[in-house]
Design a protein that fits this description.
alpha/beta; 19% strand; three-stranded parallel β-sheet; Rossmann fold; 10 helices; 39% helix
């Protein structure tokens, strides 16, 4: 998004973003974006604490948690700060797996497994969202519980997810593009905030990993895949 915005101030740009667009200077305000940029925000990083809380219900109380990040992503520094604060308060180790490119995924999982991570989550980045199948396969290979950001990954075998509804975000972005094509200006279109959050659990994957999902967690789930 930052690269697109730097490339043009005239061509309309519609984003789907897993973080706060104000924080990165993409828009002047949520209600009046200004300029040529607007879009949909799912506030993915803001759900990091809740995602961690859900994951920790499945692993030993003091078990280490692994966090996959792309060091080049602007979200990484604030995500790391938030996770370290959670770890300090909870008294559990935080392990880091750096993924600069898709080819780093396998090594990052292997490193976290070697360091005895009892569960893994990932920061917001296109590397992770575009490599669903590989992420699911690596989680199965190393027999590590992983919580994802989207329902789609759980549908193909991921253990669980807690995050915004990606399909709704795509739909909202499409509606916004349609309005622009019919003459609306991005500067006048408020950023749409995707507020629908889902907890999805795949019981088949949990059984494969030898995990017993607490009944309280199942009750809170919006969808349980059996």
């Amino acid at each position: 998004m930052l690269a697109a915005k730097a490339a043009t101030s005239a061509i309309p740009i519609v984003f789907e973003l897993g973080s706060d667009p104000l924080e990165f200077g993409l828009v002047q305000s949520i209600n009046r974006p200004g300029g040529n940029v607007t879009g949909v925000s799912t506030f993915g990083r803001e759900l990091l604490a809740k995602r961690t809380e859900v994951l920790r219900e499945l692993i030993p109380k003091n078990g280490a948690v692994g966090l996959l990040v792309n060091p080049q992503n602007p979200n990484t520094r604030p995500s790391l700060s938030e996770m370290q604060a959670l770890a300090n308060v909870g008294g559990w180790p935080l392990l880091l797996g750096e993924v600069n490119t898709v080819s780093d995924l396998g090594r990052a999982f292997a490193k976290l497994a070697e360091q005895r991570a009892r569960g893994i989550l990932h920061a917001t980045d296109v590397i992770f969202s575009s490599q669903r199948k590989q992420m699911v396969a690596l989680a199965a290979q190393h027999a590590i519980p992983v919580i994802f950001t989207d329902r789609e990954t759980v549908q193909i075998g991921g253990l669980m997810s807690y995050g915004g509804d990606i399909a709704d975000a795509h739909r909202d972005a499409g509606v916004m593009v349609g309005r622009i094509l019919h003459g609306a200006k991005p500067a006048d279109l408020p950023v749409m905030l995707s507020t629908k959050v889902q907890l999805v659990i795949n019981l088949k994957t949990a059984t494969t990993l030898g995990l017993e999902v607490p009944p309280a967690l199942l009750v809170r789930a919006d969808e349980v895949i059996e």
